[in-house]
Design brief:
This protein is mainly β. The chain has a single domain, classed as Neuraminidase. It has three helices and 28 strands. The protein has a five-stranded antiparallel beta sheet with strand order 1-6-7-8-9, with no helix packed on it. Strands 2-5-28-27-26 form a five-stranded mixed beta sheet, with no helix packed on it. Strands 3-21-20-19-18 form a five-stranded mixed beta sheet, with no helix packed on it. A hairpin with a 4-residue loop joins strand 14 and strand 15. Helix 1 packs parallel to helix 3. About 10% of the residues have low confidence.
Length: about 375
């Protein structure tokens, strides 16, 4: 079975701008062949369990002591570049990065590298509004053996398949429009050519969907509405990060404005909510919800067959911007199994989205602050 680790991140414009204010900041760097050798406790493989229905309240102490990691900045064999709205995916020995900050030196929105030494392979994906060009794309991972990933272009609702050479082919799948939804915003996963799991905006919130090819038609069903608060009737309160198990057995949603994680079993329909009893965003309009003085929680997610890894802030964008401007940026990675049990919590010494690569025992991070934005953290995994 292919190993897939993916991160999909929803970032606010105000924080992205604030975090790039120190654009000339530098730090000690290393070549792509070198990683920091921080020794960490072994993480054992998880055993699969049935999902228990209901809501459980957990506490920070359930993670145990926070494990602090020091990142090593990598200098890639490419022109220096800044990142904008980045997304990352690791599949087997390949690392795929989305970066909407394209330039003459870096015309491709996607950069593909071979792991573990980050050997540059190619760039692809042209930014624009023409045929087979991209304005608002997302990495749309897949469990297919012969595909690297899918890419979903939101503006045209068009799905493309990317192979391991960085070549894109239109799939010809068009997801069903949700009636009365104010807009469309799909993040998804394809188990194969026939079955797609995704999250999409619905009236007053967001929901899980499954779409399956039956003959020549795509049959779609809404699986579960992930909106849970009677006080919050806007889709913006439910911005967050979506994950699917590599075999499609479970779906996970981590909320940006609530410290809550939802687990959904695609075979039984059982749901489990893991809640940290945090107050969350105050019920208000979209402008207030997306404001920089609201505490934000989850900022990205990646997974393997055994674990999920959630990038966690726990501060306001204003506070994070101040920390980064003073050179004190940091972020957390919270590790859970697929049943919602806390495993470990890591503190990284830079701010930015992350993706975990269990095969090579690393955490990769992209930072807005640097022209060489990639950092790597050493992790020990018991395979």
């Amino acid at each position: 079975m292919k190993r897939i680790y993916v991160v999909a991140v929803l970032y606010l414009v105000v924080l992205s701008a604030g975090c790039t204010s120190n654009k000339n900041k530098t730090t000690g760097s290393k070549s792509a062949e070198t990683v920091v050798e921080t020794q960490e406790p072994v993480v054992e493989k998880a055993t699969w369990q049935s999902l228990e229905e209901g809501m459980v309240t957990v506490d920070e102490k359930d993670f145990g002591a926070v494990i602090e990691l020091t990142g090593s900045q990598l200098v890639l064999d490419t022109e220096p570049f800044k990142v904008s709205e980045p997304e990352m995916l690791v599949k087997d020995d390949y690392f795929l990065m989305q970066n909407l900050n394209v330039s003459g030196e870096n015309p491709g929105m996607y950069m593909l590298f071979r792991l573990p030494d980050f050997q540059y392979i190619t760039s692809f994906g042209i930014r624009g509004n023409g045929p087979n060009e991209f304005l608002y794309p997302h990495i749309f991972p897949t469990g297919k053996e012969d595909a690297l990933s899918y890419v979903y272009e939101s503006s045209r609702k068009e799905l493309y398949e990317a192979n391991f050479a960085g070549e894109l082919t239109s799939v010809g799948v068009e997801f069903e429009k949700v009636p009365k939804a104010v807009r469309s915003d799909i993040y998804g996963f394809a188990t194969d050519d026939d079955t797609y799991y995704y999250t999409e905006i619905v009236p007053r919130g967001r929901a899980f969907f499954r779409a399956k090819m039956v003959g020549d038609s795509l049959q779609t069903e809404q699986l579960y509405n992930i909106s849970f608060s009677e006080k919050h009737k806007s889709w913006s309160a439910y911005i967050g990060d979506f994950l699917a198990h590599p075999e499609g057995k479970r779906l996970v949603y981590a909320y940006k404005y609530f410290k809550r994680i939802l687990f959904y079993d695609t075979e039984t329909g059982v749901t489990k909510a893991v809640d940290f009893n945090k107050e969350g965003v105050v019920a208000a309009n979209d402008i207030v919800t997306l404001g920089p003085d609201n505490v934000t929680f989850y900022w990205g997610a990646s997974c393997s067959a055994d674990y999920i890894y959630l990038t966690y802030s726990g501060r306001t964008p204003i506070q994070v911007t101040k920390e980064n401007s003073e050179g004190d940026g940091y972020i957390f990675v919270e590790q859970f199994d697929w049943h919602g049990n806390p495993v470990r919590k890591y503190k990284l010494d830079h701010w930015g989205p992350t993706v975990v690569d269990e095969k090579n025992q690393r955490i990769y991070q992209l930072s807005y602050l640097y022209d060489d934005p990639l950092f790597v953290y050493k992790l020990t995994i018991d395979n």
